[in-house]
Amino acid sequence: MNAIATAHRARLRLVIVAAILALAGLLAAAIAGGPARAAASARDLNWAGKTRPVIVLEHGAWADSSSWDGVIRILTSEGFTVYAPPDPLRGLASDAAYLHDFLTGNAALAGKPIVLVGHSYGGAVITDAAVGDPEVKALVYVDAFIPAKGESIASLLARPQGAGSCIGGNPATVFDPVPFPGAPKGDADLYLQPDKFPGCFASGLSATEAALLAATQRPLAANAATDVSGTPAWQAIPSWAVVGTADRVIPPALLTFMAHRAHARITDVDAGHLSLISKPGAVASVIVAAAWATS
Fold first, then answer.
1. Would you say 280 and 35 are in contact if contact means Cβ atoms under 8 Å apart?
2. CA distances (Å), 205 to each of 64, 125, 201, 276, in order?
3. What DSSP character marks residue 166?
4. Where are the domains of the chain?
5. CATH class of the domain comprising 54-294
6. Ramachandran angles phi, psi of 12, nearest 5°
7. Angle 121-116-112 from CA coordinates, rounded to 5°
8. Does pTM top 0.90 for this prediction?
């Protein structure tokens, strides 16, 4: 009997120990999962009674809408509706008109607040395209040109703050010009030479990714660099700016000068010109902040 009782007590102790371990495991899982659930709930509650703006992303030269892929994944997971229309890259006036018509003539956007985001040359495009559109509530510039009236991409890079740009200097050592049908006299598509991608346009990305971007680049019409901007939308619309502190295309000094002039809220990011690819989380967080502040 003593042996049976001893064995019974041993089994009972094992059951109790197992139950304690199981309970500890459940508590640990609850603690680990708690912050994630709390964050998700807080995110949802933060937008209670507020309208999430639609996010419209404009890419720049030598890129396409896929450059926003990482940012789009984050924004859509946060519940935003996102559009990334193509930038024709044919000239500032026509590119801005194309985007303006997309914003104002798209039935899916009718009556909805918009946060308009531009990367690089796309910054100049959104600066002109948002003029006259009351639904654009915020502008976000990502490693982008922010021109004032009468300025061009070329004139901005010619400022003292633009010194050292890796796309400056002799155009013959930077671009491969290619004719296109219907081009105005003297105009051509400018492709960045492949060796300009790894250490210049795509600095901070892997060599494999830089090579892929070089192969799939979309060219900018040469005249687009000298087209001058009209009255800037940032005079009337609140602005945010992401400044890549290692940007070699638009030097950080120029990015910061333009952002300060536009009274933009500035976020510095340790990235090159393509922070939207290398640091999509940081870029998305600025876009969300703009959306929240203006919703």
1. no
2. 17, 25, 9, 11
3. T
4. 1-46, 54-294
5. alpha beta
6. -65, -40
7. 155
8. no
